[in-house]
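Work package 3, deliverable 3.1, input record:
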Amino acid sequence: MPVNLQPAQPEHLFPVAGVDLGIAMAGVRKAGRKDVLLVRLAPGATVAGVFTQNRFCAAPVILCKKHLASGKAPRAMVVNTGNANAGTGDDGLKRALQVCEAVAAAVGCSSGEVLPFSTGVIMEPLPADRIIAGLPAAKADLRAANWASAAEAIMTTDTVSKAASRKVQVGGRTVTVTGIAKGSGMIHPDMATMLGFVATDAAVPAGVLQELLQEVADESFNSITVDGDTSTNDSFMLVATGASGVKVDGKAAAGYAELRSAVREVSIQLAQAIIRDGEGATKFITVKVEGGRDRAECRKIGFAIAHSPLVKTAFFASDPNLGRILAAIGYAGVADLDTSRVDLYLGDVLVAAQGGRNPAYREDAGNAVMQQPEITVRVVLNRGTASATLWTCDFSFEYVKINAEYRT
Amino acid sequence: MPVNLQPAQPEHLFPVAGVDLGIAMAGVRKAGRKDVLLVRLAPGATVAGVFTQNRFCAAPVILCKKHLASGKAPRAMVVNTGNANAGTGDDGLKRALQVCEAVAAAVGCSSGEVLPFSTGVIMEPLPADRIIAGLPAAKADLRAANWASAAEAIMTTDTVSKAASRKVQVGGRTVTVTGIAKGSGMIHPDMATMLGFVATDAAVPAGVLQELLQEVADESFNSITVDGDTSTNDSFMLVATGASGVKVDGKAAAGYAELRSAVREVSIQLAQAIIRDGEGATKFITVKVEGGRDRAECRKIGFAIAHSPLVKTAFFASDPNLGRILAAIGYAGVADLDTSRVDLYLGDVLVAAQGGRNPAYREDAGNAVMQQPEITVRVVLNRGTASATLWTCDFSFEYVKINAEYRT
């Protein structure tokens, strides 16, 4: 059951001129579900992407990077669920290319202008023929107002479709930013999340767009974890169609701050949605680590807390078993950490002060915070000014059930 | 339910002359259970220890290291369960010292010759008064033949007591090695396990003993994980009483190889017992990583597999969802890993070859291995000659239940 999360609503999602989306039921893994998404981009659109750092990166990720690096402006993206096309070797690359070629024929471009994405089971052959057979239906469905349906088409173990949208004013003109994402398990993005697609109608040169994307990815998709497993298929894409007529051609340009802020808000909302719908999640947990020497050590400690099965099961039980959080801070790998300076807050409650239990702490106060569906853990290291915020969920019976039964 | 593991049997455990063990029910956390162990060492015994690398190391660990470093030969060890005395600051150190002083008075030595150990809930004040009140009963119970009872006294969430024993012949004389351990959750030892005590009646100088212990720890307690959480209280101690009259005073000495082998066997058996009784475990899993450049990268990859909740839930479900293992290999942090050279075996079945699914692999063969209670995963990196073996268990509903309800 997702934590405070509603499915994507068409009426809340602003279309982005220059981006059309079409959906098909291609029976990739199971019949009767939306499982192929075709995205057509208007000529002149720029695209930026960040991808998984997993050494076993999937065939579509390899192809995506290659096509982006070619310098050609992408004209289409194609996404299938049900099969990740990862751990499939050269045969997987061939199949991904076959899909690109079929998409190219359908939308009228070259296969190098098509970016492929896959998500689902790892190490099984991609049924390229079924995906290709679904393309005519997806093409017939292409519409700018299709974001909510697109969000549904990319779901796997997600229980709720995920989308976010913003409008910002730049010099009297309106710029739109709309995005979708999927992901629920195998979530510990390293450069990007499972699949995230954000588009804007601003005009942004590819280099500027790529830099903006990397900054935003770090604060959004790279700051979440469900289970610490970095997927083979993580991809986070940002498209700028330019259809609004608003040009944002550098960091110093008018409108850059507004655009960055809108992209950041949409991306954080999508990343948080993945956590709210984390496999088996019953709690949405924000981990803030402050007073560190640098952001890297704050993130190390934050992720140690967020990955600990002991901490996560305590949250599931609404049990303020806070010693487990101290233990995680202690083994996070910050070798010279002086624990006698560490403070720990649960919500607003000071639980541990100077590395030991706060004498004034009463378990009732901790219990009251633990009953909430949304909880903030705050660690103050008192050794510098850096900080990091990340988001995770608890670890429930349901997580085990979902992942024990995933392929059945 | 532990995997192929029987409780410690008194008749299988050889006493070690020079080591007497006494047990008490002190009501540290709950009434009516053995929760204090007193160990008296004969004069002249040498002791070596390795301890947790967790920065939040517990008060007894701090004191233990200090007493060992003083150069005095320890005369007693005292262990309580029910309370870890970790995350307790200066007050925790005071209470641990009070217990040492009481033990010193009971056995007739100085407090600096007593080594304290605690295990249980973190960040709660140690009830030193109750432990001290239990010491007379423990003292009255001191016997050399008490190893099985001692193994019971140090259990927390363990469902089965853990002990192992060997006799080896050295130059016509018999040397005994006997040990006990506890641990079931918060298991990812980093230098040592939760609590492990091994004793021998060989005579070994403290420096030699310490080196032997560190080597053996690396291959036993430092090669297991249940949940990836490194405890605040990990301690692994090796005692040599010399009572057998057999002197082993260096690596080149007669009997060193035999003694090392016996200590290693006892330690690995104890470490494996912890995994067989891992919280909620239904499967005992051996992870072998071979063909690496060095042992460190083999361990990195092995632990990435052993820590992945997705891999562990798949084992629980007996589902050969092997793509999850490839994904874990890929994100383990070996940056220059060439995945196209990686082979993966499940038992004797070649599942993935050269980084992709083995075309000859049939799911039936994987399923047959997965039904077994003991499973070996073998990863061949094909880039060197180093290897590492480690042991873990699966991730079940029961794990979540145990840890959600731990303090209730």
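Chain B is about 30% helix and 25% strand.
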